[in-house]
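Hey all, quick one. A colleague (J.T.) asked me to put the 5-amino-5-deoxy-1-O-phosphono-D-mannitol job into the tracker so the inputs and the structure tokens live in one place instead of scattered across chat threads. No bug as far as I know, just bookkeeping. Sequence used:
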Amino acid sequence: LLHDYKHYMMKEIFDQPKALEDMLTGRLTPEGVDLPELAQIWTVEKLKNLRKVDIVASGTSNHAGVIGKKALEQLLDLPVEVSYSSEFIHEHGTLDERNLVILLSQSGETADTLSALREAKKHGCSTLAITNTAGSTLSRKADCTLLTKAGPEFAVASTKAYTSQITALILLAIWMAQRMGSARKEEVSELLQALERLPGDVDSTLIMTHDAIDQFAQLTYDQEHLFLIGRGLDYVLALEGALKLQEVAYIHADAYAAGEMKHGTMALITPGVPVIALATQARVFDKTVSNIKEVKARDAFVVGITTVGDDVLADEVDEVMYIPSTHSLLLPILAAIPLQLLAYYAGTVRGHDVDRPRNLAKSLTVE
Ligand code: M6R
């Protein structure tokens, strides 16, 4: 099952081009996105009657949800809120039949997320499970299911499930926008073209970043702290990168919205401390570069991640890594790859069991 890989985590990172292809096959059509599993249940009338979308999930699935929120908000005129399952159970806004609650879970067995589903159903909300596990409790109990088709994920760290979840939410956003008549046509057609290129872009990203990340990970061997900074979608991805490093490499890694460093965290930046600066989002690029200059001025060791074609960042950081250029909503999928690889190599260089990190389980069946 492992083929030539030493660990499931590595295999699953490298599975991603294929996983995403499977996710998209049959769903991306020349006319747009086709999701027959949802069309049966959600009439156009029902969709138009929605007042709000809630995305509820734990851990990495929650981080995928935050990126999905941006996609749904860009394409639909609906408010979208993301909650941790463990919080949603106790605190949520008004819920009724005009709320769509999306429960996102790789395993479909996470106790917190199942409790959140019960809470949503109690209030009469429409419920959608997005899961990688057909036949899971979540899938059986929600009104309908969108499968992520990433294939089984054995390592505790979620990698291919995460990128498939983001893709699922983007497909859902396009599908809903098409049916609700709120599609911004040009934006949608750009996104569809970019989705077609996605598996190939992920493959290129693996090739473009693997060796450099491996080398950088060896340098972090004795570092206790690491910071990830970015703005907008880069910030959301930074949260996921930090979680992976904590989980697999046991490094104290923290993510910050780049513009917030000066409001407190800058005091923690000491000479040599590693900082990963995500600068893939064109809209906020210049401001992110200003923030990178601030951490560089405190002698941090900065690794910048940007898109091919950018010739600015290389002069501002100690090391630069490039990912392919694509639609802004898909960049977190590509930029996730070097962060997953970093967690893997930082974990293995420390001698950790990267597939089964201490104190953690693949499926959390207690609240
Ligand atoms: O199966 P789920 O997606 O519901 O799991 C949720 C979290 O426990 C999970 O994403 C966890 O954060 C990962 N191990 C992180 O890599």
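Adding what we noticed when we looked at it: The first helix runs from residue 8 to 14. The radius of gyration is 20 Å.
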